[in-house]
Amino acid sequence: MPELPEVETTRLGIVNHLKGQKIIQASVYHAGLRWPVPSELPSLVKNKIIHDITRRGKYLLFHLKNGTILIHLGMSGSLRLTDKKTGRDPYEHVEFRIGKYFLRLRDPRRFGAVLWTSDNPELHPLLAKLGPEPLESEFNTDYLYKKSRKRQCAIKDLLMNSQIVAGLGNIYVNESLYVAGIRPTRTAGKLRCDESDKLVKAIKKILEKSLKAGGTTLRDFSGSSGEPGYFKQQLLIYGRDGEKCTKCKTKIKRIKQGQRSSFYCPTCQR
What positions carry a catalytic annotation? Predict the structure, then answer.
């Protein structure tokens, strides 16, 4: 699934091209995404100027005068930006003609979303309860430590709860826990204050490195230009079960937590 760095990489790849441009036309080829694409969307956005493109968690927000388009890339979605009209891929479900550009949502598994709100987007049901952004100052040692108190869930599950911190996903939580030396199964309520500090710093460090590298390519993610992200080459723990830990040479283990895989070093992570 595209996580925060992938979504932010996509935003950075399109905002300078599309900000201030007029939406000439919106075409919905398949409305049956995770939630139905609103039938009135093409008429609502036609001839409207894109004032800005921002991100909240894993959602991209296209701000127009009369409302906001919310786009989520789902499990395997991507936005492709081109200045040429080309044949449509059967997995491309929504297309915006914006100035001289064509912006298409490609989503093979159709878990993505293209939604509309005419109200304050921060109050939208999908955004209203999101926790702080992990790279902003509100997400800090004191915040994480207080949120973890008396929690009986695993620390990994706490970090992947979007109401605690927005936008973190499986890859980056695994990587951050490894850097911080904390086992993903550790009970969240047992996190010490100094460990909270290490974990917050690790999360910010890992996300910043991934943003510089352009995200992570594991299956279907690519940036707006179609170029893949390259952070996969720098992954320390994720997907490396059976390989040796780069710190202590112990074999990395893989377990299931919920429906997702967790990777950890039995020696380095406690």
Answer: 2-3, 58, 260
Listed in sequence order, the DSSP H helices in 82-192 are 141-148, 155-159, 170-180
Confidence of residue 1 (pLDDT cuts 50, 70, 90): low
> Residue 270: inside a domain, yes or no?
no
* pTM, to two decimals: 0.89
Task: Flag whether 40 is in a domain.
Answer: yes
Region 121-130: mean pLDDT is 97
CATH number where 218 lies: 1.10.8.50
Share of the chain above pLDDT 70, in %: 93
164 lies in the same domain as 53: no
Closest of 70, 69, 79, 68 to residue 107, by C-alpha: 79
| The pLDDT of residue 228 is above 70 | no
